[in-house]
Structure formats: structure tokens, C-alpha cells
Request: fold
Amino acid sequence: MQSSAVRAGLWACRLLLAAVFAWAALPKLIEPGEFAATIQNYRAVPDAWVGPLALLLPAFEAVIAFGLLLSPYQRGAACLASLMLLTFGVAMAQARWRGIDLSCGCFGALLEAKVSWLTVARTLGLAVLAGAVLFLAPRAATHSRFEQRSG
Reply:
């Protein structure tokens, strides 16, 4: 059984991550063309993937945000959030290493932030928070229909 402090901390992490993912998704859903240009600027994926990613990633971010708020889905959403944040962190780091000067695209045109090592660190810090939710949140009780009938 977890202490109330741990439960409160996990809830705070879930709220923060959900807010970040929802805030990140909204402008990209509204302006997918701008987000597509940002993805292309990273020069990390084939051109054929840019359009589909510009449409799918923001929707995926929105689903993760909702999942983090719903207890039965918190661990799955946290797993996806940590994987997505790690991927974004690696994409930003490779851009910095290659000397590519670009906006991170994290929050669409609402918040233009240049990719910097601080941006990479912030993203990886959020991945750590998502990992904490994944590993510290209680596991949901699952029962198969067979177990319920035979029990």
C-alpha cells in the first residue's frame, strides 16, 4: 500500500504530464501544416512520413493526455508518454549535434522555442516523470470473464 504522499505525488505528475500533452496537442491539431514543416526541419524521418506524422502525433498526444487522467489507463499512458518523450528528446539531441537550428515544435506556434540542450533536458525530465508514474502507479486489477464465472 502506498502512502498518501506518494499517491499525491503521482497524481501531481499525472496532472502535469496530461497538461503538457494536451497543451502540446492542441495547436498541432489546429495547424497540422505548420507542425509538418517543423517535423521536416528535424531531418530525422523520410519525407513520406512527415504528413502522416503531423496528423497522427498530435492525436496520439491528446489520447495520452486523457489516458493519464483515467486511473485504469494511467500506466499504459505513462508508458507511451515516456517512449514518446524519449523519442522527442533523441530527435532534438540529434538536431543539436548536427548543428540544425530549429524551433522544437513542442507546442506549435503558440510557444516558439529553439532547440537547445535545456529543451532536451526538459523533455528527458518529463520522460523521467512519466517513468515514475509507470513504475510507481498501482497496477489495475484485471479479471478475465472466465475467472469471474468460475469464482
Observations:
- The mean pLDDT is 90.
- The two ends are 25 Å apart (CA to CA).
- The chain has one domain: 4-137.
